[in-house]
Task: inverse folding
């Protein structure tokens, strides 16, 4: 992907995908890791507004014991709405 650099030296034009509002986002961060029995797992990403609205914490900010706990049924992201 081509990116440009702004005058402040930061990359512009880089977008990730938010799995919650199903659109591009410059603030998307990994919030869930979904493991599968076979094949590769999957990560789910949420932008800042979706994280705040749904009370989601990025994986990098979550203590390891919490990552290993069973998902809460209210926020279990493997379900499809």
Result:
């Amino acid at each position: 992907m081509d990116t440009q650099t702004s005058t402040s030296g930061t990359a512009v034009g880089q977008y990730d995908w938010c799995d919650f509002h199903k659109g591009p986002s410059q603030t998307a961060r990994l919030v869930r890791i979904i493991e599968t029995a076979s094949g590769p797992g999957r990560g789910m990403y949420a932008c800042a507004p979706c994280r705040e609205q749904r009370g989601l914490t990025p994986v990098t900010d979550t203590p390891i014991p919490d990552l290993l706990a069973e998902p809460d049924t209210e926020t279990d992201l493997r379900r499809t709405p």
